[in-house]
């Protein structure tokens, strides 16, 4: 391992007194398709709303957001298909109750390989508190997700599915959950304790236009085991079929899943 720089700030865009080092920060990950960011308006709105709830004083008109994204995509010499936007909590004196000033927004373009194979999920060994407000933010604090993903790997699975203490399914470490049953679409409501994902929002908004019945409803483990199909979704990967949850196998090529996958391809840049 190379020696650490004596001035750690030389390796970071954030000052030493930025509240990002307390875990106070937000991020968005945008998929880039045909050289353009997908759903930039929805990502901007979520970032703006979340910052307001955390009292992070960000002044970022939508036009400036688009300009920053476009500039970010012009910088890399290699092809990219994603952008990460990281917003810090800002500079502040020591202490948990202090409010940051001068928050920093750092955009980074990157390349990733989309996952095209169906996923294997396992139920998490711990439950979440649905009243915990942290789950409603796309926060930089990913320690729980890291621990859960490692647990999944140890159990021979790709991902963990979380449940709350009432036994209701919530989400995976990085994606929202949908269930197909009787050719209808179901997804847990935000009140179960989960993030309002961008693709989740689009499916709820557009399903009716696509001739699909979609509703928010608490989902138990028993209901998931009895489902015709499951899939998860996020902004980078789109929709991903689930082939197995614990010991239950599913149709990873369900016609409704295939329909939604095709519809979302056109919707991303609409």
UniProtKB/TrEMBL annotation:
Q: Which CDD domains match?
A: PLPDE_IV (cd00449)
GO BP, sorted A to Z: amino acid biosynthetic process; folic acid biosynthetic process
Q: Which Pfam families match?
A: Aminotran_4 (PF01063)
Q: What is its EC number?
A: 2.6.1.42, 4.1.3.38
Does the keyword Transferase belong to this entry? no
Quickly give the catalysed reaction. Answer: L-valine + 2-oxoglutarate = 3-methyl-2-oxobutanoate + L-glutamate; L-leucine + 2-oxoglutarate = 4-methyl-2-oxopentanoate + L-glutamate; L-isoleucine + 2-oxoglutarate = (S)-3-methyl-2-oxopentanoate + L-glutamate; 4-amino-4-deoxychorismate = 4-aminobenzoate + pyruvate + H(+)
**Pathway noted in the entry:** Amino-acid biosynthesis; L-valine biosynthesis; L-valine from pyruvate: step 4/4; Amino-acid biosynthesis; L-isoleucine biosynthesis; L-isoleucine from 2-oxobutanoate: step 4/4; Amino-acid biosynthesis; L-leucine biosynthesis; L-leucine from 3-methyl-2-oxobutanoate: step 4/4; Cofactor biosynthesis; tetrahydrofolate biosynthesis; 4-aminobenzoate from chorismate: step 2/2
Which UniProt keyword terms apply here? Answer: Folate biosynthesis, Lyase, Pyridoxal phosphate
The Gene Ontology terms for molecular function here are:
4-amino-4-deoxychorismate lyase activity; branched-chain-amino-acid transaminase activity
State the PROSITE patterns in the record: AA_TRANSFER_CLASS_4
Q: Which InterPro entries match?
A: Aminotrans_IV, Aminotrans_IV_CS, Aminotransferase-like, BCAT-like_C, BCAT-like_N, Class-IV_PLP-Dep_Aminotrnsfr
Concerning Gene3D superfamilies, the annotation shows: 3.30.470.10, D-amino Acid Aminotransferase, subunit A, domain 2 (3.20.10.10)
Tell me its family.
Belongs to the class-IV pyridoxal-phosphate-dependent aminotransferase family.
Q: What is the protein's given name? A: Aminodeoxychorismate lyase
């Amino acid at each position: 391992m190379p020696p650490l720089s004596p001035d750690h700030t030389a390796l970071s865009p954030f000052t030493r007194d930025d509240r990002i080092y307390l875990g106070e920060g937000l991020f968005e990950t945008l998929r880039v398709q045909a050289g353009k960011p997908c759903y930039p308006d929805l990502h901007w709105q979520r970032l703006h709303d979340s910052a307001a709830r955390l009292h992070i004083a960000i002044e970022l008109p939508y036009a400036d957001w688009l300009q920053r994204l476009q500039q970010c995509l012009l910088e890399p010499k290699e092809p990219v298909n994603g952008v990460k936007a990281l917003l810090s909590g800002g500079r502040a004196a020591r202490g948990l109750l202090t409010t940051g000033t001068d928050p920093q927004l750092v955009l980074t373009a990157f390349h990733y390989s989309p996952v095209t194979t169906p996923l294997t999920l396992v139920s998490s060994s711990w439950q979440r508190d649905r009243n915990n407000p942290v789950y409603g933010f796309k926060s930089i604090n990913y320690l729980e997700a890291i621990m859960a993903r490692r647990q999944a790997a140890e159990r021979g699975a790709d991902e963990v599915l979380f449940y709350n203490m009432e036994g209701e399914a919530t989400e995976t470490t990085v994606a929202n959950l949908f269930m197909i049953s009787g050719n209808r679409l179901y997804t847990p409501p935000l009140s179960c304790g989960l993030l309002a994902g961008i693709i989740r929002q689009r499916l709820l908004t557009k399903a009716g236009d696509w001739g699909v019945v979609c509703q928010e409803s608490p989902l138990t483990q028993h209901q998931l085991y009895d489902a015709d199909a499951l899939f998860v979704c996020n902004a980078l990967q789109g929709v991903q079929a689930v082939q197995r949850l614990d010991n239950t196998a599913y149709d990873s090529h369900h016609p409704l899943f295939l329909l939604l996958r095709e519809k979302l391809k056109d919707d991303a840049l609409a």
